[in-house]
Amino acid sequence: MTQEGRRTGRDETQEERADRMWGELIQEVRVAQTGVQILFGFLLTVVFQPKYATLAPTDQVIYIVTVVLGACATGALIGPVSLHRLVSGRRVKPQAVRIASRLTFVGLVLLLATMTSSLLLILRVATHDGYVPYLVTAVVVWYLVCWYGLPLWARRRHPGR
User: How confident is the model at residue 1 (pLDDT cuts 50, 70, 90)?
Assistant: First the structure.
């Protein structure tokens, strides 16, 4: 565990590590769940607004795709909670953590797609300008940098054991 008198890692069992990782994962999921649920709830109300009937067919398709993506993101981000509930007490926490982590990653990718299509729809309806795709692309690049680029850079720059 030590290298030249320094600790090189945590002194924990596989079960303790799984418990710690589960707690961290659930905290992360709480943040993403809140965002996706607020966005999804808002999206569900749009179809009942009078302006929806006047949307161009392309914008209605973008809306439908956005709602489906939001529903899928919500499912993936709530999935870890259901997984934990159904396998709790079966001594499979390390495996459950891996599955929940993958579900969370999928949920974040779906959330990215939902936010992208939401932004596209809103800006198309609000501006009707040709710069909308460029603006949406810039925001998506920002999301990619914040959500994936910086974490992957940090992971590479500061490798674990």
Answer: very low
Report yes or no: 69 and 117 within 8 Å, Cβ to Cβ.
yes
Task: Say what percent of the chain tops pLDDT 70.
Answer: 94
Q: Phi first, then psi: what are they for 100, rounded to 5°?
A: -65, -35
Task: Name the helix (H) or strand (E) containing 3.
Answer: strand 2-3
With tokens 């870890």, the residue in question is: 80
Using one digit for the tens of pLDDT, what is the confidence trace for 21-46?
999 999 999 999 888 989 999 999 99
CB 73 within 8 A of CB 114: yes
Q: Residue-wise over 43-60: b if at least 16 C-beta within 10 A, else e? A: beebeeeeeeeebeeebe
Instruction: Write down the residue that tokens 């569900």 correspond to.
Output: 44
User: Nearest CA to 143 among 102, 113, 118, 100?
Assistant: 113
Contact criterion met (CB below 8 Å) for 51 and 67:
no
pTM: 0.86
- For residue 98, give the amino acid letter: R
How would residue 159 be classed by pLDDT, with cut points 50, 70 and 90? confident
Largest CA distance in the chain: 70
Q: What is the Cα–Cα distance from 145 to 161, expressed in whole angstroms?
A: 25
Segment holding 79, helix H or strand E: helix 57-87
How far apart (Å, rounded) are the C-alpha atoms in residues 110 and 143? 12
